[in-house]
Each structure stands twice: as C-alpha cells, then as structure tokens.
Amino acid sequence: GAGVSQSPSNKVTEKGKDVELRCDPISGHTALYWYRQSLGQGLEFLIYFQGNSAPDKSGLPSDRFSAERTGGSVSTLTIQRTQQEDSAVYLCASSPNRGSGTEAFFGQGTRLTVV
Amino acid sequence: GNSVTQMEGPVTLSEEAFLTINCTYTATGYPSLFWYVQYPGEGLQLLLKATKADDKGSNKGFEATYRKETTSFHLEKGSVQVSDSAVYFCALSEGNTDKLIFGTGTRLQVFP
What we know:
The structure holds two protein chains of two kinds.
Chain A: E1 5-7, E2 10-13, E3 19-24, E4 31-38, E5 42-50, E6 65-69, E7 75-79, E8 88-95, E9 105-106, E10 110-114
Parallel strand pairs in A: 2-10
Antiparallel strand pairs in A: 1-3, 3-7, 4-5, 4-8, 6-7, 8-9, 8-10
Chain B: E1 3-6, E2 11-14, E3 19-21, E4 23-26, E5 32-38, E6 45-50, E7 56-59, E8 62-65, E9 75-77, E10 86-93, E11 100-102, E12 106-111
Parallel strand pairs in B: 2-12
Antiparallel strand pairs in B: 1-4, 3-9, 5-6, 5-10, 7-8, 8-9, 10-11, 10-12
C-alpha cells in the first residue's frame, strides 16, 4: 500500500490478556516508530527502530511491553498481561533514513481498550 | 533529555481570527523542528518544518520560525478557518536520527 498500515484498527481485550499490534511501514523506509496517544497525554514515544541498529527502547513503560521488527519491515508491538491503563491509541510511523529533518508518515492507529 | 513544551488547549477562535500556538523546546544540540496536525478522524500528518536556526516553515497559510535564541517554534496563522480545527503537535528530532519527540498537543476549535 501507499501508506503506513496498522492492524487491527480497534481491539478490545480483557485485563490480563496479551495483545499484538501490527504495523506495515511504507516500503523502503528504514526508520519505524511506535507511539502511544492517551487522552490528555499527547504522543508518548515508545520505541524506535532504525535499519539494523539496536532499537531505542527507552520509551517502553514497563517490561510488559516489547516490540520487534522482522526483516527490517513489519513490526509487532506486544503488550503482555494488559492493564486498564494500557488503553490508548497506538500509533506507528515510518520514515526514510535521511537523518534529522525527515518527515515521518503515520498510520491511522490501533485503538486498544482494556476492560 | 530533549523535550517539547506547547501551550495547553483548547484554543477557541472565531473564523478569520489570528492564531498563535506557542512551542518551546529543550535540546542538547541543533534539532530540526516540526508541526504535525491531526484532523478529526484522520492520522497525524506533517504541517511544516524547519531544520536550522532562522528558517521559516510554511504551509496552508501557517508559519513557524525557528528561534534558537528563545528555543521556540511558535505556530501562527493570520486568518483561521473552520477547517483548521484539529489537534496540533510540535515536535523535534536531533542529530543523525529521525527520532521524533512530541509535545502534548494543542486542540484548536474554530467557530463560524
């Protein structure tokens, strides 16, 4: 596709269950980001992948959160033992590797609701 | 660490009014600065950017000037329209990476 694709668009899960969120970046983009958008909290950085470098995981809020990027393309964000405070919109973005100043392209997000 | 601070919303204006949304940043080096916009029901998209001091980014009638001396990148528009109603995010990236740090967002509501 032409843009960043995220699935599912909506996910309702029970507290304590694990969830996986998927992101398909724009083809050829080497940088991939995950952000979390909570009501009143703005955009919270979670994790950043850049090419073959070790990911920047400094934004992951707890060890229940993990992410991987296979083959430098598709990424999966996994939340284990979900809690109600994990409810948010999870946004994925990608950009070409052109350094600072490069535009990031965002997906529509996955709205996660933990009940 | 790097951070972005922007004014809290909502900002409520009448059509054709002048808009300013303040944004200041903290960075150890020389970041690039961005404004992203999120229209209702749509994904985030780049509005404008500036990559070095004194640069002015502009798009759709919006402008922002990179002020190194005041570490600011305030967003302005001379005459807002109802269609400008959205959430606006100030952001920075630094060094050789594309890693973006965002502010908390400012909701703009424009009424006819």
